[in-house]
Structure formats: structure tokens, C-alpha cells
Write a structure and sequence with these properties.
Elements (H helix, E strand, L loop, with lengths): L3 E2 L1 H7 L5 E5 L13 H7 L6 E2 L19 H10 L7 E5 L7 H10 L5 E4 L2 H7 L25 E2 L1 H10 L2 E4 L3 H5 L17 E2 L6 E2 L2 E2 L2 H10 L8 E4 L6 H10 L5 E4 L2 H5 L12
Parallel strand pairs: 1-5, 2-3, 2-4, 4-5, 6-12, 7-8, 7-11, 11-12
Antiparallel strand pairs: 9-10
Length: about 280
């Protein structure tokens, strides 16, 4: 099954009651003034699309951003958006590739089976000549039964074990942040985990879309990634780590976990070892 859907394919399914469309656009970190992606959604969205607020559908008991909520809270929130366990779930973002894969990963981690991303997002939809709507969308609540995949997400302690074992850890942050030569957008140290490999998430994209599976295979191979071995993805706060996870899924990797706390947690942990480029 393809992980990407074209605007033409989505348009043919738009009135299908078994298909639900979600705008999962997060504002970029460190941009002033902040981008109000919900307001942009209300101004213009794919007809019938609901707004999947990644920040809102997260664990609010921790100061770490975007952390997964518990199963009950996730199921309650996603059911309210009209998402059922047996539906085809189409996720898009307003521009580029950034946060839609995080929503894809969240849904897959909680047991959704048929989740795809609109190739090129809202921009591609408009370029294909399809209409958009504005305003609120009232969704009929659906039944989402969560089935949590514990192997899809790892904790700090599990990450430490992986580092000690020399497992593959991929970091989606920009090179300067990974090297420790550029600051983080949050008030924490930059640098990287011992033995981790830097693959900035934008390297997986071209013109606001994912590269082909063929090109992604070449990219990961050039970085020394063996898709048959266990792989952990990380980033600043667990969002673009999902871009790497999605790209790995596109090339057939089967043992991929995401470190949900990512650098926000790691850099502040007293037991963390931080390395920087010489």
C-alpha cells in the first residue's frame, strides 16, 4: 500500500464516508511572530477536513512538547474529530513537509491501519485546481479503538541502552544544531548523542514533497543506514523524527522506533552524554 496519495486520488474519494481528511500543520519553532496554523486552516482547507492539533492532542502533564498522550485521551480526541479505526485517514499540511508525518506516526502508533499523507499537501491540492473551503467543520464523532504499539516509541532509558549497544540512531535536526555549532531554538545545549547519525529531515524532501522511494534508499544507504536493523529516530521535539520514520517506512524498514522526548529531553537529562563536532 502506498503511503502517499495524490490530489487526484484524494479528490475521487473526498465524498467517501470511509475517508477522513486532517490538516495537521504545526507552526515552526522559533519564528516570530508565531504562525497561527489553526487560523490559516479556518481561512482555507480541503473540503471537509478537520484540524488535527498536535499540540492539543498531547500529554499536558509533562513540560516536554508534543509528547504522546495516553490511549484513552488520544482515542477521545481523535474520535471527536470524526476519525474511526476502520477509516482511511488522509493527512496533509499547509505547506512543505514538517508535521504531517508526526500525525501519521501518532495514528499508526495508536493502531490506525490505513493512514496516508497527501503528496505535496494543500499547495499541491490547489495547484491541481481543486477547491478549498473556509470556516469550521463539524464532524460526526466516530469510534476509534486504540491499540498501542509499544515498540514504536522508546524512552530515555531505552535510548541509553541503544547507545551502549551501538544501535542506529538517526537525528533529523539541522547540521549546525547536531554539530553543536548552532544554537537550539529552545534554551538547551546543542550537540548530539554518541554514535548518532545526522540526516536533516529536509534532505528527504524536494520541492515540498517526499523524494521517491528510490532516492530515499540511496540517501539512507549513503548515510550507512541498514534498513534491516533496528533504527531509532530523534530530532528536537519528536516532530521531524517522524519525517525520518515515514521515509524509512517508504523504503521498507520494519524495525523503526521514535524517541519521543528527543533532544528536548535528552539535552536536559543529568545522565545524558552530549557530543559536539571538533
Amino acid at each position: 500500500m502506498s503511503l502517499l496519495i495524490t490530489p487526484q486520488q484524494l479528490n475521487s474519494r473526498l465524498k467517501d464516508p470511509g475517508t477522513i481528511v486532517l490538516d495537521a500543520t504545526l507552526p515552526p519553532v522559533g519564528v516570530t511572530p508565531p504562525v497561527d496554523t489553526r487560523a490559516r486552516y479556518l481561512e482555507k482547507h480541503i473540503p471537509g477536513a478537520a484540524f488535527f492539533d498536535i499540540d492539543e492532542i498531547s500529554d499536558h502533564t509533562t513540560p516536554l512538547p508534543h509528547m504522546l498522550p495516553n490511549e484513552r485521551e488520544f482515542a477521545k480526541a481523535i474520535s471527536f474529530l470524526g476519525v474511526g479505526s476502520d477509516m482511511t485517514i488522509v493527512i496533509y499540511e499547509q505547506e512543505g513537509v514538517f508535521s504531517a508525518p508526526r500525525a501519521w506516526w501518532m495514528l499508526k502508533t495508536f493502531g490506525a491501519e490505513d493512514v496516508v499523507i497527501l503528496d505535496g499537501g494543500l499547495k499541491a491540492w490547489e495547484e491541481a485546481g481543486y477547491a478549498t473551503h473556509s470556516g469550521f467543520v463539524t464532524c460526526k464523532p466516530a469510534r476509534f479503538t486504540p491499540r498501542f504499539d509499544a515498540e514504536a516509541v522508546i524512552s530515555f532509558d531505552e535510548l541509553q541502552q541503544a547507545i551502549a549497544a551501538g544501535e542506529t540512531i538517526l537525528d533529523a535536526r539541522a547540521k549546525g544544531r547536531f554539530d553543536g555549532t548552532a544554537p537550539e531554538p529552545r534554551p538547551i545545549s546543542s550537540g548530539h548523542m554518541p554514535g548518532s547519525i545526522n540526516i536533516p529531515f529536509l534532505e528527504l524532501t524536494e520541492n515540498g514533497r517526499f523524494k521517491s522511494a528510490h532516492d530515499l534508499k540511496a540517501l539512507f544507504a549513503a548515510k550507512g543506514v541498514d534498513k534491516k536493523k533496528p533504527i531509532i529516530t530523534s530530532c528536537g521535539s519528536g516532530v521531524t523524527a517522524a519525517v525520518l520514520a515515514f521515509g524509512l517506512e517508504m523504503i521498507g524498514a520494519k524495525h523503526v522506533s521514535l524517541y519521543d522526548g528527543s533532544w528536548c529531553e535528552y539535552a536536559q537529562h543529568p545522565e545524558a552524554q552530549i557530543e559536539k563536532a571538533l
